[in-house]
Amino acid sequence: MTQRRRFDLTTRIALNIVLDGVLAALGVTVSFWLADPLHPVPSPELLPLAGAVAIWLIGFPFGLSRLHWRFVSFRDLALIGAAAAVTALMLVLLMVGAGLAMPSTAFPVILVLTLVMALSGPKLLYRLARQLPAESNEAAQTAVLVGNGETAELFLTAYSRLGAAPYRVVGLMALSARHIGRRVQGLNIFGAVEEAEEALDRLAQKPDLLIITTPELAGDALGALLAAADRSGIRVLRAPSLTRLAPADQKIELQPIAIEDLLNRQQVKLDRAGMARLVAGQRVLVTGAGGSIGSELARQLAGFAPAELMLLDNSEYALWQIDLEVAELAPDVPRRAVIADVRDRTRLAKLCDAFKPELVFHAAALKHVPIVETNPLEGLQTNVLGTRAVADAAAASGAALMVLISTDKAVNPSSVMGATKRLAEMYCQGLDVAARHGGAAMRCVTVRFGNVLGSTGSVVPLFRRQLSQGGPLTVTHPDMQRYFMTVREAVGLVLQASVVGSGAEAIPDGGIFVLDMGEPVKIVDLARQMIRLAGLRPEEDVAIRFTGLRPGEKLFEELFHGSEKPEPTGHEGLLMATPRLVDVRLVAAAIRTIEAAARTGDAAAATATLARMVPEFVHAPGLAVSGTAG
User: Are 395 and 441 in contact (CB under 8 A)?
Assistant: First the structure.
């Protein structure tokens, strides 16, 4: 196969050489005719052959023989022009040296222009011919591109290489109204995203499809465009990221709009330098490393060059996945993949004693509310006893910092899961106060936030699975709402909180960092949006069914308890909850009581102790709601 490719390349180069020679000879002949129409024949008659030889000699250093006619560019045209000018100069000097008369005083200029036209014209015509569709497909769907001029031009260039496309591009919509009236590759920019509905209404025939060509379009602007398209019955898809370095045969696979793109969140500037100072050269332990938060923590931490990274999880498959991914992302970072249960105090103590982590990120938890409701002892053992085991083992081995990943469900909890996370917060708060005033070495930072889009067990993967099965999409209650954030943004802010909490900045004793989650989203609206993003219509193509609140669920979550006054931290995206402190000795005693109850399988005694320690814990029994969305 390699020999065949070499043969094909040699053949193409030889063909280019021959064609350039013929074109140069033709250009010399035509230049004589243009310079002196009464005497059109070159004198001497071998001068065209001299032109061919000259272009062969000059063409090699200019790379003319390697030009791909189908993809000739402006840079290529500049090279052709330079080669033509040098060739013309050589021929003129040859004629002057041989004492030959010029057909006219303008002959040198005519010769240059003629050679440029002769060498570049056929190449441009060839490229144009290859970009024209083989035949007009009047039955194809019509499409409008949405984006800036550069991304639209890249898309149209790649689109022109397709043999047969299922859609026909008929116009462009810009990101800004100042571009209206311009043209890109012969297509009119007829409107802008900011006036999408009016622009679409002005069209005599509405397109079947809007294709977004730029990743810049997101948040409210994207939501408004989707709403306008929905009212007009137009599907919206996103084009892949295209570059000028892409291969010529790159396929254009249009994708549905990701629900993450609709989060109206401003990009937060993070202290990457501070993160690097915190992590670089340190031994770092991540528990729950195979989960949604833990795996993203592992990815981002690996990028800051830790001395060694221990990935701990009790799921073999999840651990294998993240270990493989980190190996590919950061092959130079030493790592250990460890199967362990955070509830096993002896195992954790031995692991930490051997590894001696300096930074510990505790993401391991049972977080699915209904499952923990039916398995309360498991939730208590993982979320409470497991947090204590990790914190104690880390402190005993000399760790400088432990970061606890908490949840908004710990605020005024209505579920066992939420209450267990609140008790875990209380234990870590007590340890942090001890570190500040009691001479303990390890600081504890607690970070609380809401739902992460696409995380395991969350509503977005559920809706995607239900959509793939044709529906219906199940929503527990019409008024259910939640805070949402992308996993990458959440973990970035967790690392930011780690930098702030471990530094010398004045923060309250036992203060809890709370991520700025923006505005809550109604789950039924999320369901409708995901149906639309799939190119379908809510309630017509896919039904939405209300199933009722499950035990432990609330209609809405809170980020702050009534006694926790939100305080700014001076860092964008981070707030501080004024701490509600309980003596760590009382918390530790309660955890020992829960441990004893769990050992005997006494769920009632364990949850009673949990309720005593978290007095705001009020069990939600669930609420039956039936019907479909109207």
Answer: yes
CA nearest to 395, candidates 338, 439, 333:
439
Does the annotation count 421 as an active-site position? no
pTM metric for this prediction: 0.70
- The two tokens of residue 199 are 């622009």
pLDDT for residue 3:
47
Q: Any idea what DSSP says for residue 266?
A: P
From residue 91, give the alpha-carbon distance in Å to each of 26, 38, 194, 389. Answer: 14, 21, 59, 87
Please check whether residue 59 is in contact with residue 151, taking contact to mean a CB–CB distance below 8 angstroms. no
Residue 133 has a CB neighbour count (10 Å cut-off) of 14
Task: Give the residue ranges of DSSP H helices in 36-180.
Answer: 47-62, 74-97, 107-131, 149-160
From 367, 409, 421, 554, the catalytic residue: 409
User: Any idea what DSSP says for residue 101?
Assistant: P
Domains and CATH numbers, the chain: 2-131 (no CATH), 141-257 (3.40.50.720), 272-613 (3.40.50.720)
Check residue 257 and report its DSSP letter.
Answer: P
For 60-81, b where at least 16 C-beta lie within 10 A, e where not — what string?
Answer: eebebbebebeebeeebbebbb
Lowest model confidence (mean pLDDT) among 107-121, 464-478, 596-610: 107-121
From CA 457, how far away is CA 463, in angstroms rounded?
11
| Torsion angle defined by CA atoms of residues 337, 397, 334 and 324, in that order, rounded to the nearest 10 degrees | 20
Q: How many CB atoms lie within 10 A of CB 589?
A: 13
Whether the CB-CB separation of 79 and 86 falls below 8 Å is answered with no
If you average pLDDT over each of 219-233, 236-250, 355-369, 562-576, which comes out highest? 355-369
- The C-alpha atoms of residue 291 and residue 487 are separated, in whole angstroms, by 11
| 3-class SS letters over 336-405 | EEEECCCCCHHHHHHHHHHHCCCEEEECCCCCCHHHHHHCHHHHHHHHHHHHHHHHHHHHHCCCCEEEEE
CA distance 277 to 283: 13
Considering the chain, what is the average pLDDT of its residues? 79
Name which of 39-43, 398-402, 465-469, 608-612 the model is least confident about. Answer: 39-43
Tokens of 606: 């364990």
- Which of 71-80, 355-364, 469-478 is the least confident region? 71-80
Q: CB atoms < 10 A from the CB of 161, how many?
A: 16
Partners of 191 in the β-ladder: 173
Nearest to 620 by CA among 478, 447, 412: 412
Three-state DSSP class for residue 253: coil
3-state secondary structure of 302: helix
Residue with tokens 């073999």: 316
Distance CA 212, CA 205 (A): 19
User: What is the number of alpha carbons within 13 Å of residue 108 lying toward its C-beta?
Assistant: 12
User: Can the peptide bond before residue 166 be classed as cis, meaning omega within 30 degrees of 0?
Assistant: no
For residue 240, give the DSSP letter. Answer: P
Instruction: Give the per-residue pLDDT at 456.
Output: 67
